């Protein structure tokens, strides 16, 4: 779970990353900038590389990665958020 407390700061950082990416073609850059402005999850996806997250984990080879997100009301005191035997 991730809480984004300052979405505008995240978006600005992602836009900077997109602007500085020398490998992006103009059409790709325009699309990426629009996506980042529209969705905070897209902004996060431009800043966090899944390969970097697991690249050094022994026995793991990342073949494909994707992002998804949804807005939820998180209540840490709710029984719905308790760890069950599979999460421990």
Produce a short descriptive summary:
This protein has 88 residues and is mainly alpha-helical.
SSE blueprint and pairings:
Blueprint: H1 7-20, H2 26-38, H3 40-47, H4 50-54
Helix pairs in contact: 1-2, 1-3, 2-3
What does this structure look like?
With 88 residues, the protein is mostly helical. Helices cover 45% and strands 0% of the residues. It has four helices and no strands. The longest helix has 14 residues. The chain is flat, with a radius of gyration of 16 Å.
Q: Main β-sheet, in a few words?
A: none
**Alpha-beta classification:** mainly alpha
Q: Judging from the principal axes of the Cα atoms, what is the shape?
A: flat
Low-confidence stretches: none
Binned strand content: under 5%
- What is the number of strand segments? 0
Mean pLDDT: 85
Distance between the termini: 15 Å
Order of helices and strands: HHHH
Share of helix among residues? 40-55%
Number of helices: 4
Radius of gyration: 16 Å
Which characteristics define this entry?
single chain, 88 residues, mainly alpha, 4 helices, 0% strand, flat
């Amino acid at each position: 779970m991730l809480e984004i407390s300052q979405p505008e700061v995240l978006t600005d950082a992602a836009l900077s990353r997109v602007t500085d990416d020398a490998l992006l073609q103009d059409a790709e850059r325009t699309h990426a900038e629009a996506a980042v402005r529209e969705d905070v999850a897209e902004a996060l996806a431009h800043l966090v590389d899944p390969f970097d997250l697991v690249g050094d984990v022994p026995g793991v080879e990342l073949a494909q990665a994707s992002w998804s997100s949804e807005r939820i009301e998180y209540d840490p005191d709710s029984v719905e958020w308790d760890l069950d035997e599979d999460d421990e």
